[in-house]
Structures
1.
Amino acid sequence: MVGKKRWAIAEGYVPETSHGPEPEMTSHETVCVLNATGEDAHVEITVYYTDEDPVGPYEVTVPAERTKHVRFNGLDDPEPIPKGTPFASVVESNVPIVCQHTRLDSRQAENALLTTVPYGAE
């Protein structure tokens, strides 16, 4: 079995503007989740800010033996994540998962794509 039940993404930022067609080129921050287990992953994401209390959990289900790309821009329950505000996040699951963090910054025509593997804690 591959993965961990808790992941930390220390860096997050959704740019306020975008350049190019939506939704493909909308600036965004994403956590890509791989569930290689035989049961659904019930994932909870908690978001941390510099000067505000943490928000969450944002709840996502990743079916067994599937992957899901979750845009932080699309999370709105319990509240939307503000654009232009630095944040960090902790991703927790009932089963082991693998996470990858990606950002598309399309504030200008010369787009930038960044991807990293978060810290797998447990």
Note: The chain has a mean pLDDT of 83.
2.
Amino acid sequence: MAYYITKLIITALLIVLISEIAKRSSLLGAMLAAIPLVSILAMTWMYIDTNSSTKAVEFSNNIVWLIVPSMTLFITFPILIKKGLGFYLSMGISIAMTILAYYSVIFLLEKLGMRS
């Protein structure tokens, strides 16, 4: 149980730290957020939990295919805000469009036989 609490604390601290840095410097905060910290943490925790680098490699390969659709959020959100939509509505629409983009890529990969 202490292990899971440690994982939670480290992960939460990183997210809070990045958001606090972003308040002071959006560029520095964005740079830190762009570093795949969540992926790095997930692969690290996965390796520690399973002692399997194969699982981490499979996870990493799947991430590669989902990078492009994840850009949907970062393109759509500022466009919607500039069009005058509110923050939460813009975020909700952007998230929904990103989810749709994820499913589209997964569907395409399955049709091409690149994912089982």
Note: The chain has five helices and no strands.
